[in-house]
Amino acid sequence: MKPHPWLPIAIGLCLPWASQGVAESGSAAAYSPNGDSASPRYAVAATEVTWFDAARGRLIPAKVYYPTEKTGPFPVILFSPGLGRSRDDCAYLGHQWASCGYVSVHVQHPGSDEEVMHGAVRRKKQLREAFDDPKNIRNRPRDIIFAIDQLERMRREGTPLGSRLDLERIGVAGHDFGAQTALAIAGQVLPGQIAFAEPRVKAVLAMSSPVPLGQVPLVVAYGDVKLPCLHITGTADNSIVSTTQASQRRLPFDYTSGVDQYLVTLQGADHMTYSGHLRPARNGQDDARFQRLIALSSTAFWDAYLKGNAEAKSWLAGDGLRTLLGAAGTVEKKLGR
């Protein structure tokens, strides 16, 4: 794999909710996670990059979604995709966040990415082995830390992308294996009693987190998580590779204390809800609806904890998020301060 040059790709705002108003109620009725007069929407472009980590002899591909406006700089979100996925995963979130004034960097993780399944006859076995591999468990948070280092270098060098980056306001998000990666950056102790807490990161989003049952006591695993976190799961969110069942996805929320935590549980959502693929609606499973709710609730979370928007925080802590979810989901909160 050769490093990619700077290849900007223009992106239209094709999200089904991009131009729709969102009705809210509660203590911050004026706030909208879909953009308002105080937080305008931006046109979005994307570029693909590949960085080389000489210390590990490792190529790190990434896809960056960013506002085309030259105003800014903009807060940065690094996204870690799930097991067997690539930098193209969850593109709808890259579009959404960039259109609301963020730079969204989707990092691919060699060793646990889409290459795991290429040519594999027993794909589930291959995925399970990649998930359990200590090298992948360690390399994923290291990839995120290395990506932040590269963004800092781009900022110092004044590259076109670097000039858009506000690296004082960094968030990390992830799905599945990527959720564990995001929580590791927030302070989770991983299997093998290893930790990668990154002080440059201010908040995390964890979607469908795997839980290390029987590997690390949960009070130890999550006891050092000291960053605000939005956890998202679904009532049918059973793992197809690990042992984590839907009812256990809430455990990172339950075992984290002393800092603001939110848990959204989508009624009928399963493990494949988050990726961006749209399947036919069935038995309460509606990918388009759920992905809209994930995009909007996560935007409000970033607005509150990366942009410091007090109205967004009141919207989350009050009735705004609950009203947005309606019958599609529930929200629980633990406000640490």
What does this structure look like?
Strand 4, helix 1 and strand 5 form a beta-alpha-beta unit. This protein is of the alpha/beta class and 337 residues long. Helix 1 crosses helix 7 and helix 7 packs across helix 8. The N terminus is likely disordered. It is globular. A ten-stranded mixed beta sheet has the order 1-2-3-5-4-6-7-8-9-10, with helices on both faces. The N and C termini lie far apart (47 Å). The protein has a single domain, classed as Alpha/Beta hydrolase fold, catalytic domain (Rossmann fold, 3-Layer(aba) Sandwich). The chain is built from nine helices and ten strands.
- Proportion of residues in β-strands: 15-25%
Strand order of the largest sheet: 1-2-3-5-4-6-7-8-9-10
Number of domains: 1
Principal-axes shape call: globular
Unreliable sequence segments: 1-28
User: Mind telling me the CATH class?
Assistant: Alpha Beta
CATH topology: Rossmann fold
Features of the shown structure:
28% helix; ten-stranded mixed sheet; alpha/beta; Rossmann fold
Short synopsis of the structure:
The chain is built from 9 helices and 10 strands. With 337 residues, the protein is of the alpha/beta class.
Secondary structure: elements and pairs:
Layout: E1 9-11, E2 44-53, E3 58-67, E4 74-80, H1 91-99, E5 103-107, H2 123-132, H3 134-157, E6 165-175, H4 177-186, E7 201-207, H5 218-221, E8 229-236, H6 251-254, E9 261-270, H7 287-305, H8 310-317, H9 320-325, E10 329-334
Parallel strand pairs: 4-5, 4-6, 6-7, 7-8, 8-9
Antiparallel strand pairs: 1-2, 2-3, 3-5, 9-10
